[in-house]
């Protein structure tokens, strides 16, 4: 991958990246939300990031291909699967990033491996992706017996030509994130990520079912979400590093 980095808000890590993934048919589905509605659900070590005074919560369905460890091999039987993330936006040490409330993976082995090897809240879900007449439908049902309810179904389509977000806009703020944060045994960790700037399209759609967010005891506002679509982007992913004891 050609390392174009001038769109990043902070430099690449010096240490080597660990793996690559290609993210396909990505929908960014976002709602503004009151800061107080999520403050107690995000680790206190993290600052909740806001745009024009509002926090945001997102549901991000996509499907992964080309899941590979650097210079070694594809992950056996798990190099392609759909995933749906529920996330909000945070900062720490002047590095804006993502905080995941949940990650639903459409592959049992991938979800078990991710939950075993990382502190991320992964769940195994049956996720179907269908394409028809220019629209894409994601339908997901959580299969983990001991997890809270988590279902999602929505149909979406792009409605504009591609563009790259302009600096300082909400489009950029919601989509151009280059790390995520997670907690493990009261210690804060960061995972750095790199990819080219997203080639976005405006999108529209309908959500038929969503209990992914409500299972987190978060209520979405009664308004249409802000929708973006991106067809593909290849990402480099670094190992987790502890950033605070």
TrEMBL record:
The superkingdom listed in its UniProt entry is Bacteria
Taken from the record, one Pfam family name reads DUF2071
SUPFAM superfamilies given for it?
A: Acetoacetate decarboxylase-like
- Read off the InterPro entries from this record: ADC_dom_sf, DUF2071
Question: What is the protein name for this chain?
Answer: YqjF family protein
- Per the UniProt record, the source organism is Scopulibacillus cellulosilyticus
